[in-house]
Amino acid sequence: MKTNLSYKLLMVTVLSALVYWSCSKDLNDRSDSYPALTPTSIDLDAGTWKPVLLTTPGEFAVAAPVATNTPAYIAELNEIKGLQRNLSDNDKKIIQYWSAGAVLRWNEILRELVAKYNLPPYQNPDNTYPAPSAANPFAYPYFPFANPPYAARAYAYVSAAQYDALVATWHYKKLYNRAAPYKVDSLVQALVPRSDLPSYPSEDAAVAGAAVEMLKLLFPGEVAYIQQKADEQERYRIMAGANVRSEIEAGEALGKLVAQKFSARGRADRAGQAIGNPDIWKKFETDTEAKGEVCWFSLESPKRPPMLPLFSKVKGFLCDSMDIINMRPAPPPSTSSQQFKEETEEVLYYSQHPTRDRLRIVHFWADGAGTYTPAGHWDAIAADEFVKEHYSEVRWARNYALINMALMDAAIACWDAKYFYFNPRPSQSDPNIKTLTGVPNFPSYTSGHSTFSAAAATVLTHLLPDRGSKFNDMATEASMSRLYGAIHYRSDCTMGLESGRKVGERAVLRAQTDGAE
């Protein structure tokens, strides 16, 4: 038994490494073509935009920089010149990579981490399942299990913290109005596009400081890797002539202070209790049966505990607990109704009659174990669209914060419906139904893909209205992929889309009042 278990653990580890490598390779191959960030607007007044958690953009003090004619500053300019005289090919690749944008790159890094950790734990020899522990992230199963709700929360916290950090950074940039090193000294080369944006404190360092602080909480087993990426990013700014070291230090310190406020919120947002316990899991069954309905159960062998049944209690960014209850969709068709029978038969049809086009749709939107999840898929879609717009870093951060806060709250709303109604999966209702892409280990109603997709599409449509029909068509396709894959009933999908739109509209309301439009 020990040998068998060790072999299984080894295979899980190998699979994790392969998934991480392949995901990282795919992301890097795709993103190497991103051009250097050249904002059409520097958004100089972004220091007045409404932050998410900060009480004011100037909540954390940043000391005034020294004058650019002082020996201390001149020494920092000499550091840049020394680095630029000896740039290696690898240094040039680092500059090219990071010059695409700090927010863009950190979102990519976060998606890689989610994919690496999005692997459900293997069972113990006694057929129970271990749970990851934040207190011991290096023990199997590794913490976290970055499933869709966890991932959506991670994207939201990182994005919102980076946005607040940049609003604060812009506040001080305008206040101190220090020119970039390549404008102060003509012997400093500008290895990134020139900008009129003041350089103190460094926006890249603020983004890195916020990312490091948040990711220590969310992925504690990756601290060394995360710090390596931050060090690389900050060194790039100096090599590129965009910042002197003191600007980096000021930005990093500010980013970390802002992120500590988000970390404190994250430790108290009830996500740590979302796993529940056997008594709570059993109560979902008894409550559903008391209504005369067939309840969901795990189709895995041995049966796996339900995924984060109390995620509905997590504190969201856009919706409070009463909002979630008020947005809860009407009940699904009764499991004894004619409509339920007809919807089950429809799923059986799609299960038994796949087409090449439907299979393409199923697999494009699958986003299962070992991927960056549906939320990450929409972040990747957003990145490709935002690059075309030539946003400033602060607008990148603001737009990602809107999308990802909506995706997190969509997860909360969806998980509320799932565990309130505890509806069975189609393949549970009819064993003849064979899914085309696995069976998620949580109740059916409503569809998570549908809820996530409608929330993201609603926000993207507001940000880029000329492409609204494209985003809404994509959300509909993502929703239908779950019916084509025999994972969801039609009502799961239609009501999921409706719920997602309602959450997305909350983000749009925030966008309309945050001062950025």
TrEMBL record:
<protein>
    <submittedName>
        <fullName>PAP2 superfamily protein</fullName>
    </submittedName>
</protein>
<dbReference type="InterPro" id="IPR000326">
    <property type="entry name" value="PAP2/HPO"/>
</dbReference>
<dbReference type="InterPro" id="IPR036938">
    <property type="entry name" value="PAP2/HPO_sf"/>
</dbReference>
<dbReference type="Pfam" id="PF01569">
    <property type="entry name" value="PAP2"/>
</dbReference>
<feature type="domain" description="Phosphatidic acid phosphatase type 2/haloperoxidase">
    <location>
        <begin position="400"/>
        <end position="508"/>
    </location>
</feature>
<dbReference type="InterPro" id="IPR016119">
    <property type="entry name" value="Br/Cl_peroxidase_C"/>
</dbReference>
<dbReference type="GO" id="GO:0004601">
    <property type="term" value="F:peroxidase activity"/>
</dbReference>
<dbReference type="InterPro" id="IPR052559">
    <property type="entry name" value="V-haloperoxidase"/>
</dbReference>
